[in-house]
């Protein structure tokens, strides 16, 4: 029962990780630049994401521009697009597989099949967490390095936006969920190896008794 409750807790974490992963991929505020002029009316906030760049004015106007050209983008943005999409796909696969392999569901067949499915789903979550952690770390490194570069003007410097923090948190949820699923299946298999079934000892015992009986017949 405790193992089933732990799997259900990991499944809830994985759901939060999947939703956060998709949200971080689509949000345009991976890096933010607030440019406040001499007048509050001229204050604007520039946001850049993986797929679009948006500008928000203090007057309430909001405009976005899609990034159509892929080759014109920096390498870290191209890599972030690819890895974040892979993270979303793997986490979605993990949700489907662990739904079949969880102990609290009646899908997946016998216990061994559910255990294998649960382990495969945990591996998908771990890979999704790694693929989500790589772009957020690389993106944050580029933002910090540009911010500390003295040759770059202040108007061109940015700070990490909310999408980066959501990506970090989602990757952590997916990694924790994957470790819980894999560990629960591993403990079960390890227990079966340490404490084998007693049925395997019965044939040898019966064979020894039969051998003794045959020897008495010869005597």
From TrEMBL:
The chain crosses the membrane at residues 84-105, 117-139, 163-186. Keywords: Cell junction, Cell membrane, Membrane, Signal, Tight junction, Transmembrane, Transmembrane helix. GO terms for cellular component: bicellular tight junction; plasma membrane. It is found in: Cell junction, Tight junction; Cell membrane. InterPro entries: Claudin, Claudin_CS, PMP22/EMP/MP20/Claudin. GO terms for molecular function: structural molecule activity. It is a multi-pass membrane protein. The keyword Signal applies. The keyword Transport does not apply. Residues 1-20 form the signal peptide. Pfam families: PMP22_Claudin. Belongs to the claudin family. Claudins function as major constituents of the tight junction complexes that regulate the permeability of epithelia. PANTHER family: CLAUDIN. This is Claudin. The gene is Cldn20.
